[in-house]
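**Polypeptide and fold**
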Amino acid sequence: MIALSAHAATECEQNYSSKPSADGGTIHQSFVGLYGVDTAQAMTSLESSARKIGFQPLGEPHVAADGLITLAVAQKATVKARGFPIVMAVSPQTDSAIIAFQLAKGVGAATAMGNICSFFDSAGLKGNTTNASGKKSVANAQLALPLLGSLNGTMIDVQAAKATMAASEAASGQVAADAANARGAAPAIADKRKVITPKSVFDPKAVDASALADGNATISGITCGVVGGQNRPAADQAITLFPYSPYLKEAIDLIDSNRYKGNKVRVDIDKRVFDTRLDGKTNSNGDFRFTRVKPGRYLVMTVFSGTATSVHNNLRSSYDPSRNTIYEWTEQEESTSSATDVLQADVTVKQDGQVVDGVVVKPMGNGRFLPVLSSVCKWHHNG
């Protein structure tokens, strides 16, 4: 099972379900809303969460024509334990992330709900009290099942599962069609979104993987997002340290500038650029720290998603002609705004043992009129 202490998000708990599978086993799954988090970034965070606890991806994430992203991960089988696949899915259609796995007949999982919810929590996908994904529960409950069904019973070891994953990807369209009546299946909807790619081409040699070997330097600082004109930290959020490369910088900027165009634009980047990284997490104040870092140039990135409520005083008036009198009063009106930002910082460690403190991971002005000032973020954070 997933080796994480249970720290379930309310939305995940509400949406958790377990039901019998066709072969007598049990399917466990749950889902949470994305609430503005980019679908590609959500899958990256889920994959990172899986790697932290020893799960290996079974191939690359698969992106369907409708934008659904799926990825299967598994722990390698040992002489004492048999591995099983966990399917992760992120859907732009339902704006949700889904995790599902199937256990064989007779295998119990008393902590299944807590394990799944801890998985979401580790990925920074904590859901919301509004439970937007629960309102689309019928659709969400079906999204991971075709891939889960094709993988079930094939896990001998990771290599065998990779072959299964490749076959599943090739047949994914047919599996979905077979799930419905073959004579009445819904027609596939063509993805007509504009495809945007970085101008440069990814060069694996430009990514220095050795930069993530142990050193003696430290990079620490704060995060700062903006919602409703207010500066807020990215609290309890996954944060990542990448060795700098021009392609990575361009890819992050491209994702950022198109973060609200998911219905019209699809950003297509070489996902290998995200493979070399060091994952961390911010605290409840949005502070972060990466230790044992080598000298070099890095990009620190996280995703901010937040809401803010503001109160407006509106002056109202009414004229009474019978009294020739104007009456005036004030009404208070509340408005709630939400925002999602890709936060980043370009950091250079010049020498071994250096402590680079006070780094502000913030919006950089990509796709915005004005970037956020570091001084404003620091003032807000210290206040």
User: Anything to note?
Assistant: The chain is about 25% helix and 35% strand. The radius of gyration is 24 Å.
